[in-house]
Amino acid sequence: MCGIAGVIGAEYRQLEPAVRAMMRSMVHRGPDDEGYEVFSLAAGNVAEGAAVGLGFRRLAILDLSSAGHQPMIHPGTGDCLIFNGEIYNFRWLRAKLESLGTNVRSSGDTEVLLHALTTWGEAALDQIDGMFALAFYQAKSRRILLARDPFGMKPLYIARSQRAVVFASEVRAVLASGLVPDDLDPAGVASYLAYGAPQDPFTIHRAIRSLPAGTLEWISGDVASGTAAPVVRRYWRFPATSDPSDADVAVRTIGQQLNAAVRDQCVADVPMGVFLSGGIDSATLAALARSHLRPVRTFSVGFESSGGQDELEQAAATAQALGTVHSQTVLDDEWIMLQWREWLHAADRPSIDGLNTYVVSGVVKDAGATVALSGVGADELFGGYSTFQSAAKAARMLAPVAWVPRQLRRAVARVVFAALPVSKRAKAIDLVSRGASLVELAASMRRLTSDDGMRSLGFEADKLGLQSEFLAPAAFDPFVDSGRDIFQQTSQAECFLYMSNTLLRDVDANSMAHSLEIRVPFLARWLVDFVGSLPGSMKAPNDALPKHLLRKVASTVLPPDLFNRPKKGFTLPIGAWMKGPLRDECESAISTLADCPLFAQSTVRHLWTHYSTSSRPGGLHWSRPLALVALGSYLQLEKKRAASRLRCT
Questions:
Q1: Separation CA 155–CA 171 (nearest Å)
Q2: How far is the first Cα of the chain from the last one, in angstroms, to the nearest whole number?
Q3: What values do phi and psi take at 207, rounded to 5?
Q4: What is the distance between the alpha carbons of residues 277 and 309, in angstroms, rounded to a whole number?
Q5: According to the model, what pLDDT value does residue 10 have?
Q6: Residue 202 phi/psi, 5° resolution?
């Protein structure tokens, strides 16, 4: 787990200062080591013509010696690699490479990945189980390969100018290069307001894009001439649905593959633990980890604040039943307030999600761990969210009226749902106007701000070149056609929209703010390929409980009372804080946002006033004003960073 940065095609004298500045902005991602290398993209002296500068910050996890230093150069070919993440099947890849005569000297995964890319080129990506964002310089072609893992567990941001390409693990690192303007992007801001987090490939900055999950791009020296158009290609898609005849075989296979994933992800040369909540996802991981870790350390966090809920009692019972070495931390209100401020300050992008991860990651890091396992991915693959039921219900209800013009449906819905609370009314109206498209419905379930709400803020999808759901035209490219399998379509939407763009990005940013690596065994490549291919009828049979197949697996490793109990959940009383002790800070952020020319000042202030002064049940949910507060706070911080960058030039 590290931070990578690079500049391709700039003048030689600009390269090192720009990349070094990017590296300095990401010390938290890699406090253990740093490295920099420069290579020519044209024949002749490296100081003449186009070149690429590659920078790296290291958080040492595997092979803590200097043998894991990056950028890593292949001794035979001169190829070079920088990568952020972990390759979990590196031992299998190593054995395969050694059978071909390759000599691998270090004990970590970086050298294995370098040899794999040198040997197989981009085809190596199809053999990797891991989380990664990488830049690979191929010496013989003088090209650079950029790539991300299938679900985008590790971020990679790219900015293109007429003379150079700048890339890094963080948005602020790209901006720190001094080569990229920080102008806001109306389409990116709109995607953020619609969902509570920017949706790939957008960021809120016009010049910066996120390389989509599961894609790759080759960049050559032509970038220096400004004539090379980007060609981003997808190397992984969600698996197509198959129809195995035996559910028991499927359960056994899932159990075996999940155990193998936990085994591979328990490999580390530093202390590690498991995030433990009260649910079956983390409990199953902790139970499986007992065969691969000695001892298994589990961590839970709770708080004193009223108005929320934690899972300390359930987690403690789980830990006792499993025999783990358990640590639990109870945070008081003063500490939580401090965490809120640090969370916003550490944000690499605005988001309404991630405070929980920021708090827990800090606790685990303070306890001495550098790696933690998390249950992210289980709900998306196995059907743990209520959206799986609501999307199916909406599709059935809308099918008979799909022929009715959308505007007419919308007009009727305004009358029919007039009595609903405001927080539910807008979503119901939007859903009725969507039609029976499963993809649209599943995406719509995750909308934070309705179409009317977006219009009131000054954003309309068609005028920004976006789909009706405020997504990029290619947003559904990773999806496969699952026919009328509503579960499959919902699972894809949850994986590629909510999980990839919100959960995983916030897990990365908020854990790395504490120099902590979080691993997610439920997203192991081969496990996803298998579970994703199972039909929805097997994963959610009639009258079954949510996460039916995972419950079957959990029953083989957990006591019955653990996997049958209802999940309590972990929620912080953010709404009460925003109206109470954090009100002044929130209003300061709202003022900053109201002054932004993208917004109508009166609309932003009205929305905040409506929320902060209302005490009616069923009123505006705190998540929508939080989106405005988080964006305003980000703009405040970015203004300070921009001033600092100017002083340094």
A1: 9
A2: 30
A3: -85, -10
A4: 12
A5: 77
A6: -80, 150
Structure tokens belonging to residue 66: 């200097």
**Cβ atoms of residues 216 and 125 within 8 Å:** yes
Q: Which domains does the chain have, with CATH numbers?
A: 2-234 (3.60.20.10), 247-339+349-382+493-564 (3.40.50.620), 387-491 (no CATH), 574-648 (no CATH)
Report the C-alpha gap between 646 and 371 in whole angstroms.
36
Window from 340-349, 390-399, 593-602 with minimum mean pLDDT: 390-399
CB proximity list for 521: less than 8 A, separation 6 or greater: 258, 261, 262, 265, 285, 373, 527
CA-to-CA distance for 423 and 607, rounded, in angstroms?
13
Give DSSP secondary structure letters for 447-504: -SS-HHHHHHHT--TGGGT--TTS--TTTTTT----TT-HHHHHHHHIIIIIIIIIIH
Over residues 447-476, the pLDDT tens digits come to 999 998 999 999 999 999 999 899 999 888
- State how far the Cα of 401 lies from the Cα of 126, in Å rounded to an integer: 43
Confidence (pTM): 0.94
Residue type, 404: V
Tens of pLDDT, residue by residue over 82-110, are: 999 999 999 999 999 999 999 998 888 99
Structure tokens at 132: 């990664």
